[in-house]
Amino acid sequence: MSSELPDGCGHGHVLIAIATYKRPDLLESLLDSVEAQAVALGAHILVVDNDIDRSAQAVCGSRSGVVQYVPEPKPGIAAARNRALRECDRYEYVCFVDDDERAASGWLARLLTCVIDYDADVVSGPVLARFPEGVPGWIVDGGFFERPRRPTGAEVLLPATNNALVRVSAIKRLDSPWFDERFSMTGGSDNEFFWRMRSSGCTSVWCDEAEVSELVDRRRMNVRWICRRGMRHGNVLARLRLREVSRLRVAAEGIARMGYGFVRALVVWMQARRPTAREISTLLRGIGMVQTAFGFTIKEYRR
Fold first, then answer.
1. CA separation for the pair 100, 79 (Å, rounded)
2. Are 49 and 71 in contact (CB under 8 A)?
3. What's this model's pTM, rounded to 2 decimal places?
C-alpha cells in the first residue's frame, strides 16, 4: 500500500490523541516519530497528561505548534482518552497511539489511505515489540509479546487504541462518556469502547502496513506479569460477555477455554517442547473468565 494520500483524504482533519502518564522520555521518542508526519499532513497532536505533576508539559512545550498539551488530573486511562475526545468536534478522524510506542515512516498516511480505500469507520495496525538488551530467550521464542497480524482489509472484531484511526462521526453514535472509566484500573476500556462501536454498526478493518513499535518494559518480562496479563484479558472478555449471557454461561465458557488450553500445553510438553504464548494464553484467559464470573477482577492499574 502506498503512503501517498488519495485525493480528498481529509487533510487538516486528523487529531492524533496521546494519553500519557509519567513517561516523558518515551513520550519524546513517540513525538519524534509522529511530529513530522503530522506537519506534512496538516494533522494536529493532542497530548493528554494524566500526571498531576504535569511531567509531560516540558516535553510538549519544546515542540512545534502542531503539538497541543492538556492536563487531565482525574486518574485513569479512560478519563484521559475521554478528555481527548472532547476536543474532536472539529476533526474528521482521531488517531490513537500509546506513549511508549514509535511510529514507522508513512504510518499516518497509510492509515488514512486505508480508511478511504475500505470506507471503514475504524482502521487499526500492527504493534511490534522492541526489546531491551538482555531479554530472556524464552520471552522471544515463545512469542509472549507478539500480536496477531492480518492481511490489509481484513475485518477486526475488537481493535485496540495502541494503533487505531477512528471516524469521529462513528464515535458520535455512542453516548458519553465514550471510554468506560470502570475499566481504568483493570484495563480493557479500549476493548469495551470498540465493542460498543461494533454493536452500533461500525466497520473495522486492518492495515498491515501501518506499523508502530512498542518498547517492552523490563518489569513485564517475567512469568508473573505475563500470567496476570492473560487473566486480565479474560476478565475483560468476561465482563463484555456478561452483557449478553448469564454468569453460568460465562463460567462454562471459561472452563472450556481452560481445558482446551491445558490440553494443548500438555501435548507440547509431551513433545519435549516448551509451551508458547499460543497455548498459555488460552488457558490464562479461561482462568480470567472464571474469575470474573465469580466477581473477581485483577486491578493492574490501581494507583
1. 18
2. yes
3. 0.91
